[in-house]
Amino acid sequence: MSNLKESLYQDRLVRLQQAMKQQGISGFIVTQNVDLYYMTGSMQNGNLFVPVDGEPIFYVRRSISRAVTESVYTVEPIGALKTLQQQLSSASSGSEEQPLVLATEFDVLPVAQFQRLQAMFPAAKWVDGSLIIRELRMIKSPHEIAAIKRAASVVERALASGLRHVRVGMPEFELMAHIEHQLRIQAHAGIMRMRAYNAELITGVVAAGSAAAVPTYFDGPAGGLGLSDASPQSASRRQIQQGEPILLDLGCMIDGYVIDQTRTAVIGTLPEDLQYAYDVAEAVLRATEAKLKPGTPCEELYLDALRQVEDAGLAEHFMGYGENRVKFLGHGIGLEIDELPVLAKGFKYPLESGMVIAIEPKFTFEGRGVVGIENTYLITDDGFEKLSISPEGVAYL
Amino acid sequence: MSNLKESLYQDRLVRLQQAMKQQGISGFIVTQNVDLYYMTGSMQNGNLFVPVDGEPIFYVRRSISRAVTESVYTVEPIGALKTLQQQLSSASSGSEEQPLVLATEFDVLPVAQFQRLQAMFPAAKWVDGSLIIRELRMIKSPHEIAAIKRAASVVERALASGLRHVRVGMPEFELMAHIEHQLRIQAHAGIMRMRAYNAELITGVVAAGSAAAVPTYFDGPAGGLGLSDASPQSASRRQIQQGEPILLDLGCMIDGYVIDQTRTAVIGTLPEDLQYAYDVAEAVLRATEAKLKPGTPCEELYLDALRQVEDAGLAEHFMGYGENRVKFLGHGIGLEIDELPVLAKGFKYPLESGMVIAIEPKFTFEGRGVVGIENTYLITDDGFEKLSISPEGVAYL
């Protein structure tokens, strides 16, 4: 293993153990595939035990041989968890002031698997460690930022190809299929990972006109009719028409890291009021950029944007229409598409250098379509770097 | 809503409520997207409350308007769960012989969301309802079987196109990209859903030679090197060579339903011992087919196959190599790729008419590749119907 790789994971471990110490956590059992990859370099199936002091051990179900190659930590077969169990129970016995406090990811771990962990460590008090690990992952290393930049290049090339390909009468899903193929032959892994329960995202939302404005379960500003009630979002069979907004909310996953960006296109020109809304979306993005620097509270960006769209007379259309509006302006991205921070009311985090955030002002017009723009930004020591490289402005085809 | 649709969902409700009655469950709170779709016809975000008697109510977070259109049951905003809470607590108070027993899906619901439900219904005793709903979904209706048949046609066309497309020196992921594009332009929804924690599947495994034999975390017989340690399965950048087995384990999702099948191809011919292993895989499939009828215990199919491959001298290579072997011969499919029943030791279910099962004898040769075959079958009243329509035998290219 390279020294670079070792120091990368060492840094993550130190930060995790610091947070554990502060919160009185004796051990963290990491279970989720993405968290395991982040902490060990391996996404094999198992549990990583991180003690508050000392070296973690990766207990692997399968593949053990592959985990040995990939992981920076010692790998043991999953059966060896019994040894850990004995060690922990003897260490915690007799010290009533220091109970065994174990953490795991309550936000993703299913109840049944948690109950198995509880049964294995009956003396432990369990706490939710998901915020710790999500906050850890919120600040990206140069290595991670480089991967997100590679994804940004891939998505730009696929978008450009898609814009050349689109024709009046083309079903949305055919345009989506073309773009996805362009992503895939550039080594996109096929989906963008999401952390939230029941959330699915393939490569984003490609939808036009009325179909784009159909609301859906997905926690984002653009819904989409989808291919059926069993996949009720994004591209549908509806044919793209002249003069209606085509929303291209696209991403991909390169070497584990996602990018997220949105562009608006139209065959011909947009109706005047939709062009106006698009221009307001860009203005919101510019006003937001002006505040993108360490120290700005995340919620301020959302609340300021709300005021700006209210002044522009578009509040009812902002980030969805009516009851279906979502209440955020942007979200962190990285290994998953729904990372911290969230630009929303109540998120008091100040921006920090190393955060990577997708900011996506959009306006929905029922029966007519969705317009907007989205870029991914890196927060730097003195401001920001725009990671999305696609040309801005409505793409008139 | 059509009468047909109504009676379909009515039947599912009756069967769920019968199982609840047998197990003393007062109410079932369905939370998972696929289970919600199965029970209501809608995949919007929310909780379905199913009382042991009477009509369910679908409490929806978003999109309410879309759920109203899609769901066969009454839709209420998620806030109305408070009313349910009051009704249930008053109904259960004062009847100590009949405590409030609530079920939900412990196998998929994250701990944090379960704790919120527990806090909402503090008097309830909670039980795991996942097996009930998975057993319900195990028996397919004609409507579901028709969707799986459509998926079987889609995958055959994509496979045939892929076999025409493959060339010596083509990276595995380019072949995968081509096939996925063929799937997607036939309205494949982009992924195949899996129920298991941390499990991901895009469209299956396309891998050749040594890369196909690399083990991975995925609970299946074929692994694959993958594109990076962050997506460590299926197609990789490795170039396909002459004379090595190309594994095409493919599926897609059409109208919510998946198909799963595997074919083996080669440019030129296979080494003799791998051709022999392929022939044994087909022989295992034929022997299994002979027992595919209502009444046969699921585990018997697996145990018989084990004996057959032992007699053939291939036990060490069956369903993975060495420590990385998986311990099943097949699995139910439907809305998800990992449904019941499982053809594995300990699964005593007798086969029943209406089950749909993918059966996949495969052999792994470390450093050399994976050969095998997989078909999806419907169990009928007097035997089986093969739903996979792709030609069998090694495809010599």
UniProtKB/TrEMBL annotation, chains A, B:
Keywords: Aminopeptidase, Hydrolase, Protease
Keyword Protease among record annotations: yes
Claim: Nucleus is one of the keywords in the record: no
Limits of the Peptidase M24 domain: 147-381
Classification via SUPFAM superfamilies: Creatinase/aminopeptidase, Creatinase/prolidase N-terminal domain
Domain Creatinase N-terminal: 12-139
Any one Gene Ontology molecular-function term assigned to this protein's record: aminopeptidase activity
Pfam family, one: Creatinase_N
Classification via InterPro entries: Creatin/AminoP/Spt16_N (IPR029149), Creatinase/aminopeptidase-like (IPR036005), Creatinase_N (IPR000587), Pept_M24 (IPR000994), Peptidase_M24B (IPR050659)
UniProt protein name: Aminopeptidase P family protein
